[in-house]
Amino acid sequence: MSGIFDHPPAAVISEALQARMRKRLAKMSDTEVQAYLADAIYLERRRFHEQRKTDPPDPAEVAPIQHAARAIRGDRRDQELAILHLVDTYAHEIHNEFNRRTYQVATKVLPGALGRLLTATRPGELLHGHFNPEERLVIETAHDDGGAWLRRIAQTHTLIYAPTHVSNLDSPLIGFALHSLGLPPAIYGAGLNLFSSPVMAYFMSRLGAYTVDRRKKHALYKDVLKDYSVDSLGRRCHSLFFPGGTRSRSGRVETSVKKGLLGTGIIAWQEGLEKRRPNPEVLVIPVTLSFSLVLEAETLIEDCLQEEGKRRYIIADDEFSQPRTVAHFARQILNLDDAIVIRFGRPLDLLGHPVDDEGRTIGPGGSPLDRRLYVTDRDGTVDWDEQRDRVYTRVLSESLVRAWHRDNTVLATHAACYAAGQLLRRSYLHLPTAELVLVDDEDRSLPRARLLEALAQLIETLEQMAAEGRLRLRLPGPAGDPHGRATAVLAEALQRFRGFHSRRALADEGTKITMDTRLCLYYGHRLSGYGLPDPM
Amino acid sequence: MNVAILGSGNWGRALATLAAEAGHRARLGHRGRPPGGFPGSPNFHALTAESDLTLVAVPPSAVREVIRLARPGPAARVVIACRGLEPETGGWLSEVVTAESACLRVGAITGPTIAAEVMARRPSAMVVASEFDEVADRTQRALHSAICRVYTSSDLRGVELSGAAVTVLSVAVGVADGLKLGVGVRAIIVSRGIAETVRLGRKLGANPDTFRGLAGVGDLIAAASLHDHPGTAAGLRMAQGGTADADTRKRAEAMVALARRHDVELPLAEAVAAIAAGRLKPRLAIDMLMRREATTES
């Protein structure tokens, strides 16, 4: 059995996840088993209680928790059965059966399907799409070979695609990019809110998305999710994780990542080695998404500027929750050239090292090394050590963050907003950012000539950084002519911001350019993490 | 357990004594004449490949070269057994290992353990830190015995920073002693030196308790009590009008540069760097430290 095309039905997955849970329970004391179950009951009941005020919980969700609440008063066996019952419930909830026919139909009508999928608000509209996303998306690979290397390595290695997270459109766009490159589809976790649109839900559930309910906070659910990931990787399903966990609120390229799902790669790899599976190797592909315009920018930066404690991990009521807004966005962005850049970076092993063309780890001296030695004894037996693996995953996450920054493509909207933010900052040196975004309307007006000068200086710096391989540039205008390029960059940014967000990040007023401080902060943040001053 | 010790000076031989005392097979990597008392080899790579644990007991400026020779692989566990930042780059020595080799499982040991006292089998103690529990545990097993207590810690950054701070603060103690300022000043340097190290440590994500333990206070008291400790001796020379050796100057500069990168003020380390670079006379440096603005203790 291998790959998403052979992903078994939920009943089989449930059996496998229950077997993993039995192993976990076997290592726990009676008190630990009880506490594990009690944590699930307590956090779920609290959620149901809070949810009742707005949206009564589904009885199908409540029943297993009620069952568990009765079982916790029994002995260990009762408690273990209740836990396994919950695992079964969650396995069926998480797993969506990949549908080969839907995939074939979808890929036949591609490349138009993505445009239609994004722009349709009713299933009937799917037949009348007019967009060709292939012309609008820039899909790059580190090997610059149209994906040939990735296609070859995907046959012998299981791939984890690890993208930056900008928008809820990321998953379908990466799915589309994989198809465009001729790569097999990948499974990916999608929040429940993304299944609220019937069109999106229909396709997502059949094209590799598994359901992640971020409202469930208890350890048992998180363990089932991780087990599902390990199991899927073990079945050679290429997987898509967002190591940042949630969309970047600030607009910055992520500088830290959550290690939970990312850490499942090293477990799956060691299981593969131990069970002597034919192709046990797992590689990580850093993926960097750069959007000229981001649908949810206004909501995300607003949330970012909230005081600590008022920020939301899950935003369910953003622009993405309104199908017509998504459709409007898709129509706009799919009519722009170079609107979105998706870059598949240099692959990494699970310890953060680069790999060569054969997928072998390249050591610091530049020669290949046997990476199995990181996890095996001298006799080649897998030496399990969870603590060690957590450190390895931390090392991997640092390599990922470096790769994302290297592969981040700076676009005209980012550069223009950054330069505008810097000009405003110079006038208010001592104001904290949270207050700077609140300056009066008249103070947000910048002389065009000064903005162009600041932009030219910035472009000169960015060109130098790009030459050093620290980031990537995709700006209009002639390279090596910062002033000429500044004019082209500002013109493109102004044109892109026209009529897109409810407020314009930058608006043309003749000799003056007015700015929306929050949006400029959001787009300007794309240049954070390179040792440059903050955008504002 | 096979323990390789790269470096056959006094400290290397002291570590070999501790490993042997704990019941393990210690082998010394040497570059000159073979050391007496322990088996040794000039082939650092073979020694490392055949060992369960490798301890690096050479001066910080030689660590990079030694790691290039040893080429520890993915299976190796390498523990830095010298104090300080790399003088040339100001980088962490554990990161020199991971940058120069395939080894990821690294750690560091430090503490008030004096080579001569170990060789005389007097009681001693040290702390080994690693992000990897198995590296810390393995090192503890390798060196812990009736003559040496070895404590483990997961605060690698804190232990490395403590070691780096002690190399600089011990110079300040030497300067104060050379100027015959008395034991009160010595105590001030120890306590305020630890306070400034804690400030920097917090910025680096280290555990403040590390600086109050063997790696910080313990090591600094030992260094301050020994006039032949390299740092204290350098301070004494400078107080008597001598010039700083290149290592002392570079170590102090590296420490100050590290603090500046993290926007932390280290008045004592900055004073040592200025004296070592010849920018300040020792007495004037003490005077300037005393004239700093009055402030709260913490």
In the CATH hierarchy, the architecture of the largest domain in chain A is 3-Layer(aba) Sandwich
What does the average pLDDT of chain B come to? 95
Please give the CATH class of the largest domain in chain A: Alpha Beta
Q: What is the correct CATH architecture of the largest domain in chain B?
A: 3-Layer(aba) Sandwich
Output the strand order for the largest sheet of chain A: 1-7-6-2-5-3-4
Number of domains of chain B: 2
Q: Which oligomeric form is depicted?
A: heterodimer
Unreliable sequence segments of chain B: none
Shape of chain B: globular
Number of strands of chain A: 14
Helix coverage percent of chain B: 40-55%
Helix content of chain A: 40-55%
Proportion of beta-strand residues of chain B: 5-15%
Low-confidence stretches of chain A are 119-127
Number of domains of chain A: 3
Fill in the keyword field for this structure.
heterodimer; A: 536 residues; alpha/beta; Glycerol-3-phosphate (1)-acyltransferase; Arc Repressor Mutant, subunit A; 3 domains; seven-stranded mixed sheet; three-stranded antiparallel sheet; 20 helices; globular; B: 298 residues; N-(1-d-carboxylethyl)-l-norvaline Dehydrogenase, domain 2; 2 domains
Any overview of this molecule?
The complex is a heterodimer of chains A (536) and B (298). In chain A, strand 3, helix 10 and strand 4 form a beta-alpha-beta unit. About 2% of the residues of chain A have low confidence. In chain A, 48% of the residues lie in helices and 10% in strands. Chain A has three domains: 92 residues, no CATH class; 227 residues, Glycerol-3-phosphate (1)-acyltransferase (3-Layer(aba) Sandwich); 118 residues, Arc Repressor Mutant, subunit A. The termini of chain A are far apart. The longest helix of chain A is centred in the first third of the chain and has 23 residues. In chain A, helix 1 packs antiparallel against helix 4. Chain A has a seven-stranded mixed β-sheet with strand order 1-7-6-2-5-3-4, sandwiched between helices. Chain A is α/β, with parallel strands linked by helices and 536 residues long. Chain A is built from 20 helices and 14 strands. Chain B starts with a strand and ends in an 8-residue tail after the last helix. An eight-stranded mixed β-sheet of chain B has the order 3-2-1-4-5-6-7-8, sandwiched between helices. Chain B has 14 helices and eight strands. With 298 residues, chain B is of the alpha/beta class. Chain B has two domains: 153 residues, Rossmann fold (3-Layer(aba) Sandwich), CATH 3.40.50.720; 128 residues, N-(1-d-carboxylethyl)-l-norvaline Dehydrogenase, domain 2. Chains A and B meet through helix 15 of A and helix 4 of B.
